[in-house]
Amino acid sequence: MQEHNGYGQYCPLSMAAEILCNRWTVLVLRQLLEGSTGFNEIRRGVPLISRTILAQRLKEFESYGLVCRSSSSPGKPVVYRLTEAGMALGEVVRAIATWGQEWIEVEPSLADVDTDFLMWDIRRNVRRLPSLPDRFVVRFRFPDAAEGKRLHWLVFEREDVDLCYIDPGFEIDVQIEAPLKTMVRIWIGSQGLSGAIASGEIQIDGPRKFTSNAADWLGLGSLSAIPKRPAELRVLRAIG
After folding, report:
1. Mind listing the pLDDT tens digit for each residue in 85-114?
2. How many domains does the chain have?
3. Which residues does residue 177 pair with via DSSP β-bridges, in sequence order?
4. E strand or H helix at 103
5. Which of 133, 32, 43, 130 is CA-nearest to residue 89?
6. Residue 104 domain-assigned (yes or no)
7. How many CB atoms lie within 10 A of CB 81?
């Protein structure tokens, strides 16, 4: 007899859990909610997911009525966009993320930082200020990262910000260097940028007109303003 994968309950919570509680589902939804529409763009925000699983999740979303897919013409890339029902999940995903920011101890997660995700998250949250030049290039260096993951470039253009893993060949305006754990702590709001600069844990070099307001254009993670609960009350993230 074939096993039934549902919970066998008619309540709204169990029906929603059958859709939302598969591995990677909420993270893929987060990327769609933040405006990613192409397959490769979505995957850059969830770099550890396999292409097969991502394709499966997107197909499931379409069958549930959370996503619609389209293409401008045959042979052109497919675009994924949330339906009204999918957009309504924004509050759900935000609530889960807020709980994690408040209640989960972050240090165990810092043992194995995903550099690609960190930089993609930074790229998504930086601010294109009017005071910046038409092309503004920031080089990040993480000396303790794995080989091939130590250097990253953000290229601010008028319309977008591009993330490069090899030198794009443009003049660098600002250089940022920090250990990975320090950068993550700053990004999620558990360590202050100004304090890290004062202690030398992070170095931001370049013209003062750019470095003096680095916090304004660099921004922080979208949940960084939410304070952590006292350490003795936090829960540990399950590893593995």
Report:
1. 999 999 999 999 999 999 988 887 787 788
2. 2
3. 141, 203
4. helix 90-103
5. 32
6. no
7. 13
